[in-house]
Design goal:
Layout lengths: L5 H4 L14 H13 L4 H8 L4 H18 L1
């Protein structure tokens, strides 16, 4: 469903589809679409790679370093 920040993770048509919270008809439509889809596995991996723990913590470390070295 669409929640705060969902569009950071869900890339419409690349690694899934979203639907408004509580909209059961749209959820059913998206599930039917999912059944017929053939996602590109490499595109899925690339779309979520920033959230792999190693990449995430490297990015967080860099951000903290950048912030602390400015002052």
């Amino acid at each position: 469903s669409q929640f705060d920040g969902f569009n950071d993770v869900i890339k419409e048509g690349v690694n899934g589809w979203s639907y408004p919270q509580g909209n059961i008809e749209r959820l059913a439509d998206q599930l039917a679409k999912l059944k017929e889809s053939h996602f590109n596995q490499d595109a899925i991996k690339n779309s979520i790679s920033p959230y792999y723990s190693t990449n995430y913590y490297q990015g967080l470390s860099k951000t903290i370093k950048d912030i602390t070295t400015r002052h």
